[in-house]
Design goal:
Elements lengths: L10 E7 L3 E6 L7 E7 L7 E2 L34 E5 L10 E7 L3 E8 L4 E10 L4 E10 L5 E6 L2 E5 L5 E8 L2 E9 L5 E5 L11 E5 L9 E7 L4 E7 L5 E6 L7 E3 L4 E3 L2 E7 L2 H17 L13 E3 L1 H4 L5 H14 L3 E4 L29 H9 L3 E6 L3 E2 L4 H5 L19 E2 L5 H17 L4 E4 L20 H18 L4 E4 L17 E3 L6 H12 L7 E5 L13 H8 L3 E4 L8 H21 L3 E7 L2 E7 L5 E8 L8 E4 L9 E6 L13 H8 L2 E4 H6 L2 E3 L6 E9 L3
Parallel strand pairs: 22-23, 22-31, 23-24, 24-27, 27-28, 28-29, 29-30, 30-31
Antiparallel strand pairs: 1-2, 1-4, 2-3, 5-10, 6-7, 7-8, 8-9, 9-20, 9-21, 10-19, 11-18, 12-13, 12-15, 14-17, 15-16, 16-21, 17-18, 25-26, 32-33, 33-34, 34-39, 35-38, 36-37, 36-39
The chain binds alpha-D-galactopyranose.
Amino acid sequence: GGHERLAMEQTPLWVLSGRACSIALEAVPGAVPLWRHFGARLSGAPMAWPLAGARPLPPSTLEGDPALSALPTHGQGWFEQPALLGSRLDGGDWAPQFALQRVERTDSSLHLALVDMVAQLAVSLHYRIDPDSDVLSCSAELHNTGDTPFRLDWLAAATVPLPPEAGQVIGYSGRWTLEFQQAREALGVATWRRDSRRGRNSHDTFPAVIVGTTLADDDGPVWGAHLAWSGNHTLLIEPLSDGRRQLQLGEWLAPGEVVLAPGERYATPEAHLTHSPAGLNGMSANFHRHVRRAVLRWPGGEMSPRPVHLNSWEAVYFNHDFEGLKALASAGAEVGVERFVLDDGWFHRRDNDRAALGDWWPDAVKYPHGLTPLIDHVQGLGMQFGLWVEPEMVNPDSELYRAHPDWALHSAGRPIVLGRHQLVLDLSRGEVCDYLYGKLDALLRDNAIAYFKWDMNRDLATATLGADHRGRAAYRRQNLALYGLLERVRQAHPALEIESCSSGGARPDMGILRHTHRVWTSDSNDALARLGIQSGFLRFLPPEVMGAHIGPARAHTTGRSHSLALRASVAMFGHLGLEFDVRELDAAGRSELARWIAVHKEWRGVCHSGTLSQGGQGGTQWLQATAVDRQSALFALYRRVEDTWRYTPPMQIRGLDPAAVYRLQAMHLPSVSHSQSGTDTIRALAAGALEFTGAQLRDFGVPLPALPPESAILIGLRAVQK
Ligand code: GLA
């Protein structure tokens, strides 16, 4: 029997690999490279592929029906969501067909230059994998090489394949005071899609998504994706006809927002993606490493221990009384605070939230001698001074607006749309940024300010997008100008640290974190609500940038009351702060608070550089920070609601050195009047007298006391030197 040898063309395969993650793209002659793989690390990576893009075609299929490419477009016969949408203003060139022109690659990066000679468009696709974090960074750029304008509607920063078995998704939802809520769903036949069109990440759609098979805490393949962009976004997962799914993410563009003149280019924000074989915590560890290594830029090049804050907002709101603030600062210093942040209410005629945004100089009534006397007092107590600003905004009732009403974004002929009584300044106008820079620079020159809390408290509504831009959407240029302004301030004042706040956590992405050092996670300081908020935050962002404050005993946003032990145990792992009137505490209250702050100072090094993992079952949730050298770990078990078990199950603690012996120390024992905290084991835990090996902790776990609802137990583990 004669075996026919088919002449199969060998085509190059480009593989990029990290430690546990690889991508592979296959060259296709005359077309765009096809996706072969995004997932577990490929071993013995093949250098060529024998099929040259072909796949057996089923009946009723167009000839050459393409599989998922790096840049799927309608012109190539791609009937699912294209990675590029747009057309010439006369409607032409809406269905381009690209071919590979050039490839550049290194061990960790791949650059594909694609062209469509007919449409006169060029696209560059960039892929870079960081072998230390396993994070794949992707971006795309469109170049209009034609001689008429091209209107761009969508260019994905990344288009990647997901395997059929990855059928579970975690998306984000939320609202003010309840950000970062994780919504688990099964992926089905419909396209899964989340957008922000609010001109900021928004409270309801943090720009990230997680996909996996089981989405377990520590096992199983997980894919995560995030868009490093503080404006609008689209995240989309669409089933394909071969059982796989495509994931696309990029900047959501309003109609007509980007029209490229001949020769102009549009570059997408960066998308950061990863694959981990080690469940949700494996994925988080990758993103945390990436943010630490490649995103954050600290004054002096290295993060200093995160200073404990006292923020004045929930303590005094707009009631700035000089003597009262001094007393507040003194009370903070007494319990161990290291940075006093003067929130909203300090500037010219700012007595409530109806007026004054834009007038960035100290109020002459509240601060007749400027901020210096208060700053001197704060510094005299050994603390740094921080100040709240909201530069992007203006109240109609302000000196700035009276002088320059045209500086606010507003469509001529449309009603003004206010949010929190304020309008958005048009940052794309040079004189607006010059004004803001001048005011911020003067504050920083005249005062010893170590820190800005940079707020942004409203969505950009359609009717705010026009001004002299003839109604053109302003989202993109606004966001780019914001980054530019932040950069200008930082370059002139390199020691300054900045927090990104947006009515709580509405602007926390890795784009703004290139320019800032902390995120105000949520305006909710309710410990119970914070458990869910912070869990979602920590999936992608590391704890040292997570603003986490101990609020008042009765939370201002929910009315719920919690013990200091719970409030402190929940805030403990983040960038700690206090946000209540510490002056009201009696001596016992102050010393209890001081003790919790001391615990944080002892453990913040581990929390802010180690591996953070989380999980939960039933009515409980746990969090663990493990030192890089595995010699110590901080562990918290939170009980949200009661359940029917009589005993708390032994808590298994993973990630330690199995052979080492660890001494356990509970920071406090939760007790209600009928609890049994008198048993020997429990007493030993509190006395720091229990020792286990890492293997025992991993395999058998620690016996824990019954916990009442809305309580926590916090345990430090340190290897015993034998
Ligand atoms: C926003 C912030 C708060 C506080 C107020 C001040 O809501 O999220 O933390 O700074 O503004 O007006």
